[in-house]
Design brief:
By secondary structure, the chain is α+β, with helices and mostly antiparallel strands. It is built from eight helices and four strands; from the N terminus they run αααββαααβααβ. The protein is elongated, with a radius of gyration of 28 Å.
Length: 177
């Protein structure tokens, strides 16, 4: 009798120690799969954002100082790849098709994302880079308009067109709402 009891306890101990978590046996729930997929999509943006390299360029127009970020060519390629494979419409589709997997505030944010693209949060454009000295200040103050300066002054002021990251609005994870 004692040997049968000892054997039964040993078998129960082995079974208990080898038991896996419930999700390993039954798999992830639907909402756990949705969350995993959304986090994977969001991670694409956050990884690119973390890997951006470049330099800041600052210039002064009268009493205002302006700074913009000039990304490296590798950063520009990463941004372009992210824009091409835009994760936001995919996140919107997943959220819209699985509303029970999100809180009310998360669902509200997902509805706001309907027409969003990653370009709203991370994009690059071309911006003129000028020298910071007195004859160039009036040229820089007319950013976005055709400069009205003589060719020699313009030639002295203009350095080159550079890529700049615009706008500098950071995407916030759905799970922060």
């Amino acid at each position: 009798m004692r040997s049968k009891l000892a054997l039964a306890l040993a078998v129960i101990g082995l079974l208990a120690s080898s038991m896996a978590p419930a999700n390993a046996i039954f798999g992830l729930s639907k909402c756990e799969k949705v969350k995993k997929e959304v986090i994977t999509l969001q991670k694409q943006y956050f990884e690119v954002r973390a890997k951006l390299r470049g330099s800041e360029y600052t210039y002064k127009i009268y009493d205002n100082t302006f700074t913009f970020f000039i990304p490296t060519e590798k950063s520009v390629l990463m941004i372009d790849k992210l824009i091409t494979n835009d994760p936001l419409p995919k996140i919107w589709k997943i959220g819209t098709n699985n509303p029970k997997c999100f809180t009310n505030t998360q669902n509200m944010q997902i509805m706001k994302m309907q027409r969003d693209t990653i370009g709203l949060y991370l994009n690059h454009g071309s911006r003129p880079k000028y020298r910071n000295y007195e004859p160039c200040i009036s040229l820089m103050s007319k950013y976005g308009t055709e400069p009205k300066m003589d060719a020699d002054t313009l030639k002295k002021c203009f350095i080159k067109y550079v890529r700049s990251i615009e706008p500098d609005i950071t995407y916030k994870s759905i799970y922060n709402y």
